[in-house]
């Protein structure tokens, strides 16, 4: 429907320019995209609304009077920039708004025909048949796990955001390159290594011998170190000494480091496969930090940075309005997160020159990224202006904040297992286990839908409280509800095929879709391409989850008020079946963008 809305805006703008010129011949011509498009609060007022408040000062008139004058011009002139206003519908003034009551018949046929023709591609193209973000190259970094622990609930929000944003950008036409930085070196890694040597090495214990995923085993070592260090404060210094040995290339330290990294990364990759998260390239901190050190030392030589008396290297942050400066290299010469992030950014732009690099990282790191972008600019990299931090809020539990070192995190695998088992239990309690085929496979997909949708429905920058029971509900604003709605439509289409009833999208059939429930659903389906473009521009999947829920509710209303297979005559059955088929196409396309697996049976 975005083309109809834009045609409406073009007509209103042309009429408004005509009115403006009649009163002020020297006035600058207004551009159509400067006009806002809104949805009127009730269908009786129209389907599209354009407010004219902004022009009251220019024209020295009350907005309702301007709206009335513009509508008068539209009705008299009829043709604007090759667009026949009457073909769009009826233009009316409602207070300070010019509203369009669409020609439902032509609009419905146009919207549904586009959905049918474009199929899985629907949502990618604007009214001109172009992809709005075509030509844009966007690199998206997300996940960024540490190899001292498994992925937890906080990572799940990061992964869901990064994967969803990447899919939405690609849907809107951008060329997307998904990357992940594996934080596989540092003091935190050495802490897990020391715990392994203290508690497991002599017993020759491995993840395999203990029947554990590799990342879970390494994470257990990290928790063990935290407990041990509380009674043995010297352990922290031992970890720092081990890091120095690692950077010096000590063979034994490197051997154990590689072994534990392999365990951790192998386990993390299992979770990625399970959740549908993937990357085009993995970067490793152990391979990028030296580049960062090299650039920092160059900057030091050029006077961009300065060295403290203890030998550490710093950047002055006063130009950013910050009171505290930032250390870039420790006094012993070892690197920090900032060091490796500098090196990684440089490698990435060399590997894949981008128009934009989006870092999906929690809001705790806002300061870090302000400094990172500033340091890269200071080093002379012009593309530093193309870096963007997509900050997201923390995921908390009813019991409080998660802490990895204390073992109070919600492990990602355990959480998905719990959600899957709860879903399987409900399927069996409802006696649906035979109907769905494989309850465990279906339960897994329901679990992923519950988790991903719950994590994405909140605007990224807001903190959130995760409630597993709410996420699994088959009613309300949840992933399983969307799956249920998709399965319900699939069931209707199956029954129609069994009865040899075919969907009919001819203009004559679509004209029969004349009720308010049918029209409201069709309008919502027509909004999908514009919503995709907006969600991509804003890097905000919550716009897509909101759209999905609204669409599902409108289909439910349509289904209740407008019998499909029990319609009063065959052509109406076929027309409503066609609308159901188009709705399923849009639901599936949008669900894919927010990581909600489609199920044809539930």
**What summary fits the major beta sheet?**
5 strands, parallel
> For the residues shown, what is the average pLDDT?
94
Strand content: 5-15%
The residue ranges in which pLDDT falls below 50 over 5 or more consecutive positions are: 400-407
Determine the N-to-C terminus distance.
31 Å
Cα radius of gyration in angstroms? 29 Å
Helix content: 55-70%
How many strands? Answer: 15
Q: Major sheet: order of its strands?
A: 8-7-6-12-13
List its salient traits:
602 residues, alpha/beta, 5-stranded parallel β-sheet, 3-stranded antiparallel β-sheet, 24 helices, 15 strands, 55% helix, flat
Overall description:
With about 600 residues, the protein is α/β, with parallel strands linked by helices. Helices cover about 55% and strands about 10% of the residues. It has 24 helices and 15 strands. The chain has helices at about 1-25, 55-60, 65-75, 85-90, 105-120, 155-170, 185-200, 205-210, 215-230, 235-245, 250-275, 285-300, 335-350, 365-380, 410-430, 435, 440-455, 470, 480-500, 505-510, 515-525, 530-540, 540-560, 570-595; strands spanning about 50, 80, 85, 90-95, 95-100, 135-140, 175-180, 280-285, 305, 315, 325-330, 355-360, 385-390, 395, 465. Strands 8-7-6-12-13 form a five-stranded parallel sheet, with helices on both faces. Strands 1-5-4 form a three-stranded antiparallel sheet. A three-stranded antiparallel sheet has the order 9-10-11, covered by helices on one side. Helix 9 crosses helix 11 and helix 21 runs antiparallel to helix 23 (about 540-560). It is flat, with a radius of gyration of 29 Å. The two termini are about 30 Å apart. The model is unreliable at about 400-405 (pLDDT under 50).
